[in-house]
Amino acid sequence: MELTNENVLGKIIDKFGIDNIWDAVNPDGIMTFQTTRETIIDLIQYLRDDADLQIQFLTTMCGIHYPDQKDKELCMMYQLHSLRYNYRVRIKVFFPISDPVMPTLTNLYAAANWMEREAFDFYGIIFTGHPNLTRILNIEEMEYHPMLKQYPLEDQTREDKIDTFFGR
Amino acid sequence: MSESNNDIKLVDAPDGISGAGFFATSFEKVIGLARKHSLWPLPFATSCCGIEYMATMGANYDISRFGSERPSFSPRQADILMVMGTIAKKMGPVVKQVYEQMAEPRWVIAVGACASSGGIFDTYSVLQGIDRVVPVDVYVPGCPPRPEQILDGLMRVQDLAANESLRRRNSPEYQALLASYNIK
Question: Is residue A143 within 8 angstroms of chain B, CB to CB?
Answer without folding.
Answer: no
